[in-house]
Amino acid sequence: MLQEKREHPKEKTRLHPRNKHRERYNFKELVWICPELTDFVKLNIYGDESIDFFNPEAVKVLNKALLQHYYGVVNWNIPPGYLSPPIPGRADYIHYMADVLCGKNYGKVPTGDKIRCLDIGVGANCVYPLIGTHEYGWRFIGSDTDPLAIDSANLIIGQNPALQDKIELRLQKQPNDIFFGILQNDEMVDLTVCNPPFYASLADAKNATLKKLVNLTAEKVTGPVQNFGGQDHEIWCKGGEEKFVRDMVRQSTFFAASCFWFSTLVSKQSHLKGVYESLDQADAADVKTIPMGQGNKSSRIVAWTFLRPEQQKQWIEEKWIK
User: Is residue 201 helix, strand or coil?
Assistant: First the structure.
């Protein structure tokens, strides 16, 4: 039974101004470019075209259509059970980090293959590099501890000729290391991005998913369903998000001169205090916290650099301007 038609805002104003997903999805366009999506598009209770966002396969095919339509990715797929993240939020992260670089580059976003980014935990989906190479022409290193994820991401790159020589994938063989074993001696990157595992245990992840589904459907749910998928290592780690980020900050000190801006998502506001304590102990030269929002969900990027003003100026003149 249809409910009264809702008035939708013309734009999703919480998304970054350059985000291509500020308007509602145009399913006619998406179905035209990705006919596979046809079977998943239905009218919701308000009479609007949509998909079932509780269906992981529907979410995956929607992402396939979005990546093809907006980012020129003609072949994209991931193995069953792997994370298929919301594309608008991933695009927001890339655009905000472009703004961070812009702030040090005399008001101009540095573009092209002179800018190199490290995606920590690139995943089977390879989404951050796909967006960053298309939007800004950056080159990417993608790291992951999962060989199957690396294989999947390499398959995506191999099936999209435009991505050749723009994305290099590296397997992290030591799960407790983040930069060691990935960044080579004297190798320099301009920024890092990371979507850290959020939960502290698999049980926490399952309980949170059940609670979310109950709140959204007002029905009793007995089994967890990850609508965006995700292998265990993608959604939880010992100590959860805060410990992971604090470890990242500590390890980043060993690469202080190798990266201009380190950054990571921090999903939970209460984790910021511990992260800031770690950054203070690490003697970061500059720290930025950038709020982000998608729908009713709020998160933020924390970015830091160890480079002092004169070092930053030298980096820009030698790497970005020449």
Answer: coil
**pLDDT for 143-182, tens place per residue?**
999 999 999 999 999 999 999 899 999 999 999 999 999 9
Asked if the model's pLDDT at residue 254 lies above 70, the reply is: yes
For the residues of 256-296, what is the DSSP string, one character each?
TTTEEEEEEEE--GGGHHHHHHHHHHTT-SEEEEEEEEETT
Residues 6+ apart with CB under 8 A from 207: none
Burial of 75 (0-12, 13-18, 19+ CB in 10 A): middle
The two tokens of residue 321 are 């301007």
Distance (Å, rounded) from C-alpha 118 to C-alpha 159? 21
Query: For the purposes of burial, counting CB atoms within 10 Å of the CB of 279, is it exposed (0-12), middle (13-18) or buried (19 or more)?
Result: buried
- Whole-number Å distance between alpha carbons of 322 and 227: 45
Contact 251, 179 (CB under 8 A): yes
The CA dihedral of 43, 48, 50, 52, to the nearest 10 degrees, is -60
Give the 3-state secondary structure of residue 34. Answer: coil
**In this structure, what token pair is assigned to residue 302?**
């924390």
CA dist 75 to 34, 66, 194, 240, Å?
Answer: 11, 12, 24, 33
For residue 119, report the phi and psi dihedrals to the nearest 5 degrees.
Answer: -100, 110
Q: Give the CA distances from residue 249 to residues 131, 192, 205, 259, 283, in Å, rounded to whole numbers and listed in that order.
A: 25, 12, 24, 12, 10
- In the chain, what are the domains? 81-321 (3.40.50.150)
